[in-house]
Amino acid sequence: MSVSPVEFDAVDIIRLKRDGHELSTEQIDWLIAAYARGFVGDEQMAALAMAIFLNGMQRREIKDLTLAMIASGQTMSFETLARRTVDKHSTGGVGDKVTLPLAPLVASFGVAVPQLSGRGLGHTGGTLDKLESIPGWQANITPERMFEILAEVGAVVCAAGSGLAPADGKLYALRDITGTVESIPLIASSIMSKKIAEGTAALVLDVKFGSGAFLPDIARGRELAQTMVALGEDAGVATSAFLTNMTVPLGRAIGNANEVRESLEVLAGGGPADVVELTLTLAREMLRLAGQPDADVASALRDGRAMDTWRRMIRAQGGDPDAALPIARHTHTVVADRSGVLVEQKALPFGVAAWRLGAGRARRQDSVQHAAGIDLHAKPGEGVVAGQPLFTLSADEPERFARALAAVEGGYRIGKVGDAVLDGGPLVAQRIGA
Ligand code: URA
Fold first, then answer.
1. Ligand 1 binding residues, C-beta < 6 A
2. In degrees, to the nearest 5, what angle opens at C-alpha 59 toward C-alphas 433 and 66?
3. Are 238 and 84 in contact (CB under 8 A)?
4. 128-178 confidence digits (pLDDT tens)
5. What number does the ligand 1 atom closest to the CA of 175 have?
6. CB 147: neighbour CB atoms within 10 A?
7. Which residues of the chain form CATH 3.40.1030.10?
8. Which residue of 97, 141, 195, 334 is 20 to 30 Å from 390, comparing CA positions?
9. CATH number given to 10-56
């Protein structure tokens, strides 16, 4: 879109939203194009983001915002691939490594899974950070190589180039530093602009709720899921969503290399029950949207088909699937101070602790320590005896333990047999979509 600097006035548009009015399609198109080209400055966009945060947007406005962000950059198309494409997106959580077993599992059924992923920021981990703990593995590949891997292997997990929805890239960085991340119109348009621009034919969304999620309240999670499903369907992408529980960390590993280890257990037919359940639920839905409603995904984990695809996928991006994963120089194990039942293990404190150990980054330019993280030896509902290990912290720098231990203080509790287990209920609460 060509942008005339005089067609609209950013201040008028900010005032309209500040006072609770709807913005027109033309105003939104102009504003996003002008922001992408620098006619509208960060300070004006920050004011508008706060006005949207406070006053919300109508469905039509959210759709226009999404389309305007897509129009700010390039789009991709997988139509020339001989395989059907289906993608998955998670709103992020503690210990959420599901993309790692899921992408090769779904690809083992002949479907293409293009996973353009991000890096972790704050207490939620990033898929690329986890995979980079595998020696040699490269996140940055050209679009041509991505197509080749999709055609040959079926699954690729790589860094999203800056060409897709660049206006969102600018706006997301701004929201991060202006307290405007947790807004449904802004999250929905941000996620869906990238997914629609990527050109996938189908998309399954994993929208988290609970203490470790972006939006802890399930009703707000549901609204976000419904908004994103509607945006996908409007754009011709077959989209559905699951609301899944992030009250407790997912699985027993939180970090990077240890999450790869746990993913390998799942790919070998084992692994923690919750990681397996979520992997199978999302795989069945992805394959249903790709036209294979009866695919037997559980047997593809048991009989090694998913593991074979994983090994090919890792090799295709320069990684050595047989290389040893990094191990931290120091560990610190916390033991149960009494016997009973572990009744609480809150995702957020454990996510923050893993981050403080070095598994996550505080600023985009920071690097992560791949061996840092937490291994949980007990999960809520399990009996424990005094002196038994509850969890182990791993770090390359032992001075990190004190702040990590401070983060988990009050984040877990041993109760008596019969006490309520505060795990937030079932892992998969609801499915949304056609
Ligand atoms: N992830 C995104 O890409 N955008 C958001 O706004 C939140 C999470």
1. 172, 181, 186-187, 190-191
2. 90
3. no
4. 999 999 999 999 999 899 999 999 999 999 988 778 999 998 998 899 888
5. 6
6. 18
7. 87-323+429-433
8. 97
9. 1.20.970.10
